[in-house]
Every structure is written in C-alpha cells, then in structure tokens.
Amino acid sequence: MAGVSEIETLRAEALEAVRAAASKTDLENISVRYIGRKGIITSILKRLKELPLDQRKTVGAAANRLKAELEGEIKAAGDKFKISRIEASIDPTLPGIARRIGAVHPIIQAMDQMCRSFQRMGFTLVPGPDIETDYYNFEALNFPPDHPARDMQDTFYIEGDNLVLRTHTTPVQARMLESCKPPMKVITAGKCYRNEEISTRAYCVFHQVDGFLVDVGVTMADLKAVLVAFCRDFFGEGLKLRLRPSYFPFTEPSAEVDISCFLCRGKGCQLCKYTGWLEILGSGMIDPNVLEMAGHDPEKYTGYAFGIGVERIAMLKHGINDIRLFYENDIRFIRQFR
Ligand SMILES: [Zn+2]
Fold it and tell me: Which of 121, 148, 220, 303 qualifies as a FRET site for 274, CA 20 to 30 Å off?
C-alpha cells in the first residue's frame, strides 16, 4: 500500500504525462490510468481503510489533493485541443464554389467615365425623363412642328398625349434653360430612342451624354477648350481635335468634332477608314432662338452645347463592329468588360 512519498512520485509521473500529451485521446488515457474508476489514485483512496489509522489521514489527504490537481491539469491541457464548432464544420479539402461576380455594362462604364470627366470640370449632372413632351424634345430646341429637321430623327410617338420617347438627351437643356438663371454648367446622360432600322451601326435604343454652358461672353473657343480637355482625359494625351461645320437645329454655328485616330495616330487604318480621323461628337453655340424661347436675352448671354453618342465611343474604344452586341446580353461578350 502506497505512502505519501509514493504519492509524490505518482504526482511527478502523472503531471509529466499530461505535459507530454499530444492529443485528446492521450489525455483520456491519462485520466483513465490515474483517476478513472479503476485508476491508480482511485484505488489508493478505496484501500485507505487497510492503512494504520495514523497514516489514513495524511495519505488520504495527499491522494485527494493529487486527484483534484490532476483533474484540473487534464482539463486545462484539453482546452488546447478544442476546436470551435465552425472549424469542425469546415472541410478545407472540399472543392470551392465559384461565385460569378457581376460587372457594370460596358455602355454604363463608358457613360459614367464621360460624366465623371465633365463633373471634374465643374459640370453638374442633371437627370431628365425618358418620356418627354413634344415641346421639350423638339419645339423648345428650335424644331417647329413643320421643321424638316424633325425628319432627321425617327421618333417614337406616344399616341394622343403629344408625348415622345426622347430622341436625344438635349431636352434636359431646354428644361434647365427654362427653370434656371445663367450661369449654368450642366451635363446629362441616359437612354434615347429612335425608330430606326436595326443594323450593325444603329439600334432603337442608345445612350447620350449631353452638356451645355450658358454665361456672359461664352465663345466657340470655350467650347473647344472643354472638348480638348475631355478628349485628353478620356482618350489620352497627344490626340488632335478637328471641328467641321455641321447642322443641328438647336446650335448655330454647329460643328462635328473629330479626333485623330487613337489606333493609328492619324496615319490611316481600318478603324478610321484610312482617313486618320474619328468622328466623336456634335457640338455648337446654342442658337439664340433657344435662349430667347427660355426667356434669356441672347444679346447678353451666349452658350455652347455638345452631345456625345456613348455607343459610338465605346465601339471605337473597344474595337466593336456591331452595336447590337451591347443589347443581346451574351455573357461571353459582356464578360470581356469586367
Ligand atoms: Zn486609324
């Protein structure tokens, strides 16, 4: 039968075993060996009555102390091997689930980039309705009812109400001119609709970015400066800009704006049809009639306006040869612009 000194030896041995344990199973075995139902310490306690009375108390106390200590040590050591429920439910060897992440449509990307460029130059972005009155879409922009220029734009009319699906984003200019006082520096962007034959170059829906500025003493030079700054920002440095005379009912004079081809740098290639130039937008000085109709004195105020076809620019920029690709929602096409 063990005495106090044997219990001390047992203690050193048991504690060393706990320290050396490498797994939960090791600890369970130690627990069984020393303090289990048939464990060494348990049996010492069971056989205390075999000892002489004077030893019972000291041996019993020592054995109980060791039992308690060992229980504590085993529990503390066990915490090291505990894994959380979340860890237990993760199998890092399983193959993952590929998540398909969406992306912004290339047209919206181009439109946002254009808007940000003008916003950095101090233009305020103003939205407008897709369904527009005949007045703002045409009349306020110097297209009287019998004006031949109305034939330039194949319009979707909404029966009976004198409403149209806007054929350009310029009606926002007419609305702003009517409701605000100069100086005004506004940009607008969104969908436009024309009843056109669908082809590689034309679609019934397209997007425009439209801007204008009205103040005292605004000239064509101001227009050119803002367009040069935009082209530099959007297409990069080193491209030339060219203004060609054109016609729009709401500007006088009007100009189509070309940039030197960014692919061949003006030498001539398939993209620019060997001209070295790419047509990118329409612009001009706001027609005095438009200012007058909105209640501004054209003797005092002048302004410029420009409109950019977003699809056209995106097609040039990405070398896309069919406008319909933007609207067919073919993932293989769209995915390329992530
Ligand atoms: Zn070229």
Answer: 220
**Residue owning tokens 């609207």:** 327
SS3 105: coil
Encode pLDDT of 203-239 as tens digits. 999 999 999 999 999 999 999 999 999 999 998 888 8
DSSP labels, 164-189? EE-SSSTHHHHHHHHH--S-EEEEEE
Residues 6+ away with beta carbon under 8 Å from 59: 2, 3, 4, 7, 44, 48, 51
Q: Are strands 184-193 and 124-125 parallel, antiparallel or unpaired?
A: parallel
Q: How far apart are CA 306 and CA 251, in angstroms?
A: 9
Q: 277 alpha carbon to ligand 1 midpoint, in Å? A: 7
Q: Nearest 5°: phi and psi at 76?
A: -60, -40
Residue 139 has phi, psi (to 5 degrees) of -60, -45
In angstroms and rounded to an integer, the radius of gyration of the C-alpha atoms of the chain is: 41
* CA–CA distances in Å: residue 145 to residues 128, 129, 132, 195, 232: 22, 21, 15, 18, 39
> Which residue matches tokens 């600890």?
27
17 CA to middle of ligand 1, Å?
81
**How close is the Cα of 258 to the center of ligand 1, in Å?**
12
Distance from residue 315's CA to the centre of ligand 1 (Å): 14
Ligand 1 midpoint to CA 245 (Å): 22
- Positions of the chain with pLDDT under 70: 1-2, 84, 148-149, 151-153
- Residues 156, 188: contact at Cβ < 8 Å? no
At 314, the amino acid letter reads A
CA 316–ligand 1 middle distance (angstroms):
10
